[in-house]
Amino acid sequence: MAKAVGISHDSVHRIWKDNDLKPHLTRTFKLSRDPQFEPKFWDVIGLYLNPPDKALTIQREIFGQAIASLGYIGSRGVHLFSVVNENLPVPCSAAQSPLPSWCPALPSGVPGSIGNPFTGLQVNPNFGVLSDAAPTSTSRYHALQASLNRQFGTTFQLQASYSWSRCVDIGSASGPQEGSYGVTNPYDQSLDRGPCAFNRSQNIAANGLYSLPFGPNRLVSGWRLAGLVTGASGIPVNVLDGFDQSLGGGAGARPNYSRAAGCHPHQILNRPIAGPAIQYFNPACYTLQPLGTEGNVGRDSIYGPGLINVDFSIIKRTKITEKLDSEFRAEFFNLFNRANFGHPNPAVFTGPTAGQITTLATPPRQVQFAFKLVF
């Protein structure tokens, strides 16, 4: 009998050719056309190609009623909307004399740099900042995904999934309501290229449902237990000045690294302090950049705290008549009452709470009961 020994780069191209695959198509197929094929390795793959999106999934029944899958997903976005100041800030090299006091005598270089800072004026001085959602951004997303589904007879089923991903874009926002900031330097949008504001690089989830094997008695039958466990790494933190020190017209100006002793670009303290609060990062690791310039701290340069949550349910379903059922549910959210901390204050120079966490990302334990009739 034919046996699969794995998937090589050449194998994928051969399968593509044998199955007459074309772009913009989705196909699922086996590694052999032999009807007696009994593979000992990954035997079914799914290929999706729709430029700029792509995906490859490998699936296998590894033992009785347990199906595992492993896949890659990639995506590229172009002409995405970001908030841009259309009334561009004037750099010193384009300003009329007399130059502001912080401008070099002979300014030169990229607008917003030390040699060519912004003046605080706009190209059209009759207006201030003119924010617009312009299709000038791009994004890229890559992810490794794995899952396992297992059925244990008719009483217990289990599902688990894991993803390891990275999303990079410019801005992450077409408006301030999306929790991010517009482009800080319209002359060079690459300065705002960084992790997506919503990027959680690792996510894991597992859920199970167990039907208790009690007898046909109406009082003891119909009981089920359900659980859901979720875990995720933190989302990015965009460390900011807290005001428009760059004079670029936006609120997203970022500082310089101070290079103080004991500091490094990815330093996390995560230290409890009075308040109660958490001193998540050290404000002393940053210093205010010169007026009219962009700092050297990258966008979304550190990551916030992750979270772990467990939910649990007890369900009792009772058949009252042939056409009428009842269902009682007791649901416990955040079963272990774990404190999942929120986002730190990213504004370094606006107050004593810089770098501190004073909120929770998830509520404390909640218990609710429900009853319904199904007919």
Structure description:
The protein contains 1 helix and 21 strands. The protein has 375 residues and is mostly beta strands. It folds into 2 domains: 52-86 and 130-374; 87-129, no CATH class. The two termini are 52 Å apart. Residues 1-12, 21-26, 28-34 and 36-43 have low confidence and may be disordered.
Secondary structure elements and their pairing?
Blueprint: H1 9-18, E1 25-30, E2 44-50, E3 53-63, E4 66-85, E5 89-91, E6 118-122, E7 131-152, E8 156-170, E9 193-195, E10 202-211, E11 223-232, E12 236-237, E13 256-257, E14 271-273, E15 277-279, E16 286-287, E17 302-303, E18 307-321, E19 324-333, E20 356-357, E21 366-374
Antiparallel strand pairs: 1-2, 2-3, 3-4, 4-7, 5-6, 7-8, 8-9, 8-10, 10-11, 11-18, 12-17, 13-16, 14-15, 15-20, 18-19, 19-21
- Tell me roughly what share of residues is in helical segments: under 10%
Q: Low-confidence parts lasting 5 or more residues at pLDDT below 50?
A: 1-12, 21-26, 28-34, 36-43
What proportion of the residues form beta strands (DSSP E)?
Answer: 35-45%
What's the number of helices? 1
**N→C terminal distance:** 52 Å
Number of strands: 21
Number of domain units? 2
What is Rg?
A: 28 Å
* Element pattern in H and E: HEEEEEEEEEEEEEEEEEEEEE
